[in-house]
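User: Sequence for N-carbamoyl-L-amino-acid hydrolase below. Tokens please.
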Amino acid sequence: MSTTHNLRVDGARLWSTIMETARFGATPAGGINRLTLSQEDGQVRDWFRDACEAAGLEVRVDALGTQFALRRGRDMTRLPVACGSHLDTQPTGGKFDGILGTLAGLEVMRALNDAGIETEAPLLLVNWTNEEGSRYAPAMMASAAYAGEFTVEDIHSRRDAAGIAVKQALEAIGYLGDEPVGERRIGAFVELHIEQGPILEAEATTIGVVEGGQGIAWFDGVVTGFESHAGTTPMPRRRDALNGFAEIALAVERIAHAHGPTAVATIGEAVIGAPSRNVIPGRIRFTLDVRDPKAETLDAVESELRAELDAIAGRRKLTIELTRIWRKEPVPFDAGVVGAVEAATRGLGFSHRRMVSGAGHDACNIAALAPTAMIFVPCRDGISHNEAESATQGDCTAGADVLLQTLLTLANAPVRAG
Ligand code: GLV
Ligand code: MN
Ligand code: MN
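Assistant: Structure tokens for N-carbamoyl-L-amino-acid hydrolase:
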């Protein structure tokens, strides 16, 4: 197997697939709007299936639309060593979030084909449905169901803002597959991704060896006041939901700061119930995303915030409801796979550091089922979830080479006796 150490991906080919698929949902500002299960998502999925089949992979789709592309190994009794990520984007997403890891997996398969290499264990490339969580909550929905956190029926019945259920959306683009969710077993999982934060670039480091993912808690909130006339209601008599919400937003920021520098909290959506210029807002619906590497900090932020909400509601005669709709505990990755990523990185001579992921990833769900780790590469100014998201061809190639070498190590490792 010594020849495989010299094997490299074709960085130019990887780059051209990233640019080619960026046309599905391309925005005028140079980003991508490819919400999960949209027509554009259907188009990129069709492209991906065709490209995988052209690379000799056997493609199957599960009942949540996740695409699995298998490259046979010499020993088909071994569980496949898997890689992949997602091809859906945020509404104002970039060209790299999820896409790099998925298309780098394709590039790995092509490079192995070109070199005529057969691995011992089979390899599996995965495009997980709805990693982003923008159209349907929660994020990383299909990999969570795959890991047994949700039933397929539960996920199928979730609706987007327009009332379209997941099952209906899958049918609309022809991706309600026949493979039972979770039936396919995997031996290990490695996900390449842009860092989506500023650390690697600031330190001029090429590879992040990711040791785990931080915890995430998602909430839905509703502030209820009383709608009344903007011209006739004296200030002291108002029960203005928007002003109550303004206090909530500042309380969220203050509490996250108090648990800094690790804790982060974001109100990404806030909507006035029936907005009108001359009506005092009676209802605000909002979302809240809280993250920290420690579960205890998530607990503390939540309980401090609930106390603040009670105080705001009392003072302003409002009703404030806050419902936790999802919580993902912090996830440590597998020491063996983290070590394999680090060894591959060293072997390739790239600068590297260990780190914890700030973003959620499908790998965090798969870690419950199989030994898992991630590889990060820098992105420009640490910007992600933005149309300006950018990464260099050199860093994408470096990440794909680390992925290739890590997969080779895992797929060719001797089977342990017993
Ligand atoms: C997924 O993109 C996340 O919210 O971390
Ligand atoms: Mn992603
Ligand atoms: Mn994302």
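The first helix runs from residue 11 to 21.
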